[in-house]
Write a sequence for this structure.
């Protein structure tokens, strides 16, 4: 298979997808998880297209340009504490009090000037008068009317926040590629910026294949099942802020499938299908996709989710996921999620940390592949523990619904005894 326009991978080795599939360490019957990720990411280039949005509408989107601070943050010297603003040189060792001559509140600064041995009552965020260089917190002072006595041990400049201390005017406040979260919204607003440039939404078209699948709401015939994959795919895509186009269930007919692939690639940056990539099905789909682009089919050394297809259909990236419901979700989180973030220019990619937890029950596993058991992570007597959700079949979607983590068992690991510490991949914040 070949493309009319060669791909340009990020790596220095300028491979086409078909060349990548023929690399020396490529084994289509046992592709390691990390190797498959690396091959995919070699062919990902962020999409073009920028939209200007009001900051509230930008939540969850990706910054397309650096945010440059137009002001100093904070914009003026201010107090980090409630207390009194003083000249450090006025603080003697004899405990002689200073005279309070006014107050500085946040948003309402002291107006006037200070003579020697005078001070100003100040509150958190209040502007520090120009003559003052130190703030003494109120817990280290004693007031007798307008005469204020301070405890010994003050340090020059304490409790004073300098103008531009957090961010200087002209500095980069946020770099492009950052996902705009609530904290970023607040930071942008603190700079007085009302509109930001974001990457246009990534467009993803998806459909399920299979004559046995029935859409929700229709009656089931003998041997038919409801299609859940389009709903989990929609949920995972929508949660990432991606523009998702559900193209329904496509029957196993070459003419219908080819039209579906062409239509999907014509409207989307990425096409995702579920089903049609396992043994017996793959040859049929592979021949069809060979007419439209360049796609490789792998058997990943993992469970669940062994079959996986990746490539290009016309100008769209293509991910062919397995048909089993749990396999769809596992392969999406392990391969597709990061690819979609990369295509949006997200940098750095959000980390899916591996944490350590004590497994409370034995798990059977064969070495040689990576397994993603669905688990429940919990805290007991100050120790993080994890248990499986029960039956782990790739068709048992309830195992994903009950889970808050993956128990990640690496390829070199065999059976796991109860009490052994295992790696856990948190789903909260990722799913």
């Amino acid at each position: 298979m070949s493309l009319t326009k060669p791909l340009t991978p990020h790596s220095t080795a300028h491979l086409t997808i078909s060349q990548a599939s023929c690399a020396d360490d490529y084994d289509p019957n046992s592709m390691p998880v990390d190797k498959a990720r690396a091959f995919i990411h070699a062919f990902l280039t962020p999409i073009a297209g920028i939209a200007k949005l009001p900051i509230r509408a930008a939540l969850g989107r990706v910054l397309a340009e650096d945010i440059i601070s137009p002001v100093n943050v904070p914009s003026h010297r201010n107090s980090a504490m409630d207390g009194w603003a003083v000249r450090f040189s006025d603080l003697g060792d004899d405990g002689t009090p200073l005279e309070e001559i006014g107050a500085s509140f946040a948003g309402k600064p002291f107006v006037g000037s200070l003579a020697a041995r005078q001070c100003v009552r100040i509150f958190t965020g209040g502007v520090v008068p120009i003559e003052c260089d130190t703030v003494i917190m109120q817990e280290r002072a004693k007031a007798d009317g307008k005469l204020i006595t301070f405890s010994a041990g003050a340090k020059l400049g304490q409790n004073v926040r300098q103008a531009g201390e957090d961010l200087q005017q002209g500095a980069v406040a946020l770099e492009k590629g950052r996902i705009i979260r609530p904290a970023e919204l607040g930071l942008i607003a603190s700079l007085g910026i009302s509109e930001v440039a974001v990457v246009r939404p990534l467009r993803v078209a998806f459909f399920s294949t299979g004559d046995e699948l029935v859409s929700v709401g229709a009656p089931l015939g003998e041997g038919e099942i409801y299609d859940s994959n389009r709903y989990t795919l929609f949920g995972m895509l929508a949660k990432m802020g991606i523009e998702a186009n559900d193209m329904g269930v496509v029957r196993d007919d070459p003419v219908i499938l080819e039209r579906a692939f062409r239509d999907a690639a014509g409207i989307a940056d990425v096409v995702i299908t579920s089903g049609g990539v396992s043994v017996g099905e793959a040859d049929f789909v592979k021949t069809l996709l060979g007419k439209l682009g360049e796609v490789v089919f792998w058997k990943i050394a993992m469970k669940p989710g062994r079959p996986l297809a990746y490539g290009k259909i016309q100008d769209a990236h293509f991910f062919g996921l397995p048909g089993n419901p749990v396999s769809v979700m596992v392969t999406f989180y392990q391969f597709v999620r990061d690819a979609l973030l990369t295509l949006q220019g997200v940098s750095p990619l959000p980390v899916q940390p591996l944490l350590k937890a004590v497994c409370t029950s034995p798990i059977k596993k064969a070495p040689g592949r990576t397994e993603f058991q669905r688990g429940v992570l919990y805290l007991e007597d100050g120790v993080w523990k994890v248990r499986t959700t029960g039956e782990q079949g790739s068709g048992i979607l309830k195992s994903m619904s009950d889970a808050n983590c993956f128990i990640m068992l690496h390829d070199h690991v065999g059976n796991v005894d109860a009490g052994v510490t295992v790696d856990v991949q948190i789903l909260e914040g990722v799913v």
Notes: The radius of gyration is 30 Å. The helical segments are 17-21, 33-41, 182-190, 229-239, 254-267, 282-292, 325-343, 398-401.
